[in-house]
Amino acid sequence: MNTNEIKTFGRLKAAGYEPKTIKEELRRNLLQKLMRKETTFEGIHGYEYTVIPELERAILSKHNINLLGLRGQAKTRLARQMVNLLDEYIPVVAGSEINDDPFQPISRYARMLLAEKGDDTPISWLHREDRFAEKLATPDVTVADLIGDVDPIKAANLKLTYADDRVIHFGMIPRANRCIFVINELPDLQARIQVALFNILQEGDIQIRGFKLRLPLDIQFVFTANPEDYTNRGSIVTPLKDRIGSQILTHYPESLEIARTITEQETAAAISDKEHIYVPELAKDILEQISFEARESEFIDVKSGVSARLSITAFENLLSTAERRALQNGDAQTTVRLGDFMGIIPAITGKVELVYEGEQEGAAEVAQRLIADAVGTEFLGYFPKIEKLQKESDVDPYDELVSWFFEQSGFELLDSLTDEEYKEKLNSIAPLERLLAKYVPDLAPEDRAFFKEFVLWALAENKKLSKYYMSNGLRFKDVYGGYISGL
Question: Would the pTM of this model clear 0.85, i.e. be above it?
Answer without folding.
Answer: yes
